[in-house]
Specification:
Structural class: mainly alpha
Largest sheet: none
Radius of gyration: 16 Å
């Protein structure tokens, strides 16, 4: 089951990269300024991306744990 551990680790890294990207998007949304409504709309989009990245990371970690248990 080593392949499952490797695939799970790769999926987890994709999710972590997505989380880092969310941080960058949130920082740039605050720096660009604009009205409160515009900033809120940008940050709401970042929250959706953040939840997706978190879900991808969780799926990858589940694959890693499953691979460890089965091996």
């Amino acid at each position: 089951m080593e392949w499952m551990i490797m695939v799970g680790a790769a999926i987890t890294l994709v999710g972590v990269a997505g989380l880092i990207w969310c941080v960058v998007l949130a920082m740039s949304a605050k720096k660009t300024g604009g009205t409160d409504a515009e900033i809120k709309a940008r940050l709401q989009r970042v929250v959706v991306i953040n939840l997706g990245a978190l879900a991808i990371s969780a799926i990858g970690l589940m694959a890693v744990v499953t691979g460890v248990i089965l091996s």
